[in-house]
Design brief:
By secondary structure, the chain is an alpha/beta fold. It has 17 helices and 19 strands. The strands form five sheets. The protein has a seven-stranded antiparallel β-sheet. A six-stranded parallel β-sheet has the order 7-6-13-12-9-8. A two-stranded antiparallel ribbon has the order 2-4. Strand 10 and strand 11 form a beta hairpin.
Length: about 475
């Protein structure tokens, strides 16, 4: 059997042990209803739900089960378990024969980009054919992958909130906020696909990226406009700055300024001696940069013995640039560099490191608007499913035409699950609440916020990237 034939086999897109679960539910089971949530105790108090539409389009929408899929899966399962009786051949055959290969499932979810406090339902899944009760949790493994883009979108938005607070206290406006966190994570991601969907999660909140696959995914799966989706600038790397050796570093700067007479130009500055580089920019290139129609951005990429923390090194660079190029004092009493120069830190940074730099800059009297940040591994890689404590659990099952509540209540109460069929509501004060389906309270101002996004192989309520960005915007208040 050729492995390529199984690579896109949705039957095998699950955990091994789920293959035999059709045998394990009570014999009279007709329906399994499950939900997905970010449990209390997550790192962030809310979750930006994002990425489900991409998963649905890639894996579930359309005719997904064909005869050869069943045959191949049965052979693999027989070898895998050492028995041909574990695999439910007739169950999958029913989907081909009676459903033409379309998956008989109904998936409801909160609109993507919605910022939902932890502890609330985000998505529900149930079978639409009583013979396919086992299918609901067979797709758990695949659907749970929405944890990743949702976590990146949440971390990115949390960082945006934090940067916004520093702008509010040190700057006269918030104009630069959409560009203050740049995605540097492509090379550090675990795969091309990871970089694409994680990077798209970041673009829910910001306009800056160097992860081109994220743009492609946002355009393909969400109809994003390539003219307004994301932006970048000319920037060097060490292979450029070291190409002529230590003595030729300034020759490279000369060439760069000739090639880019206008616009933003970002230049990595620590190839040899960060202090020499900054001093040369301040002394040798001052007049040229002041006459240039654009901003020259210095990127220190490593700390030094004299300044062992990014925050202290950035503060020194700001002071040196201020002494050479000057600027203005804004209405908050903070120093704003001449617009021809700036600083970006983009190495080994995470939200805590960003806040340390912003706090130190503020202590030194500099506005946050002087700075831009690039985050790679800290944005796309240093997260996992437990960051937001995501879980997919069955909460109701139907037997002999009647629904029964299902739940777990372990001694670890933080892992207790919800019971019954669920809906997500929002009251008149903006508070989100998960309620039993159809159980509206007097103060509830919304119908069920969960929308059908998939049913019987078809996509519903397709969302655009612009709509998602609008829902996730900081102007949308979140009560947690």
């Amino acid at each position: 059997m050729k492995m390529v034939e199984n690579r896109n086999n949705i039957i095998l897109a699950t955990d091994s042990y789920k293959i035999g679960h059709w045998q394990q539910y009570p014999k009279n089971t007709e329906g399994v209803y499950s939900y997905f949530e970010s449990r209390p105790g997550a790192e962030f108090p809310y979750t930006v739900f994002f990425g489900l539409q991409d998963i649905l389009k890639k894996f579930l929408v359309g005719q997904r089960i064909k005869q050869f899929d069943i045959t191949n899966a049965a052979v693999l399962a027989g070898s895998h378990f050492g028995s041909r009786h574990i695999f439910g051949y007739d169950r999958w055959q029913h989907i081909v024969d009676d459903h033409q290969g379309f998956l008989p499932l109904r998936i409801k979810a909160v609109p993507e980009g919605t910022v939902v406090p932890t502890g609330n339902v985000l998505m529900t899944v149930e079978n639409t054919c009583p013979k396919c009760y086992w299918l609901t949790n067979a797709v758990e493994s695949l659907l749970t992958h929405v944890w990743y883009p949702s976590t990146v979108a949440t971390l990115s938005r949390h960082t945006k909130e934090m940067i916004a607070r520093y702008l509010e206290s040190t700057a006269d406006n918030m104009d630069g906020l959409p560009f203050m966190l740049h995605d540097f994570g492509y090379r550090g991601a675990s795969s091309h696909e990871t970089a694409a969907i994680g990077g798209a999660g970041h673009l829910v909140n910001f306009l800056g990226t160097d992860t081109l696959p994220a743009m492609i995914l946002a355009m393909d799966s969400y109809g994003a406009d390539d003219q307004t989706l994301a932006f970048s600038v000319p920037a060097t790397e060490h292979s450029v700055m070291t190409s002529l050796g230590r003595d030729g570093e300034l020759d490279i700067v000369d060439q760069l300024l000739e090639e880019y007479p206008e616009g933003i130009l970002s230049c990595v500055a620590d190839s040899y001696n960060i202090y020499d580089f900054v001093n040369n920019i301040c002394d040798h290139y001052k007049d040229e940069l002041l006459a240039r129609d654009g901003k020259f951005v210095i990127r220190p990429d490593s700390v030094t013995d004299l300044h062992p923390y990014p925050s202290t090194l950035v503060a020194w660079i700001l002071e040196r640039l201020w002494g050479a190029f000057g600027g203005e004092i804004n209405s908050k009493g903070m120093k704003v560099l001449d617009p021809h120069v700036g600083v970006i830190w983009g190495d080994g940074i995470d939200p805590h490191g960003i806040e340390n730099i912003l706090s130190t800059a503020q202590i030194h009297g500099f506005s946050a608007e002087n700075l831009v940040f690039g985050m790679g591994g800290g944005l796309l890689q240093k997260v996992n499913r437990d960051t937001q404590r995501f879980a997919f659990k069955s909460s109701a099952q139907k037997r002999d035409g009647e629904w029964h509540d299902v739940y777990k209540q372990p001694l670890d109460s933080s892992k207790a699950s919800k019971k019954g069929r669920l809906m997500l509501t929002k009251d008149t004060l903006g508070n989100y609440e998960t309620l039993p389906l159809g159980d509206f309270h007097d103060h509830v101002a919304t119908d069920d916020l969960l929308q059908v996004v998939f049913e019987d192989g078809k996509l519903y309520n397709e969302q655009t990237f612009d709509e998602i960005r609008e829902r996730a915007a900081l102007t949308q208040a979140v009560t947690v």
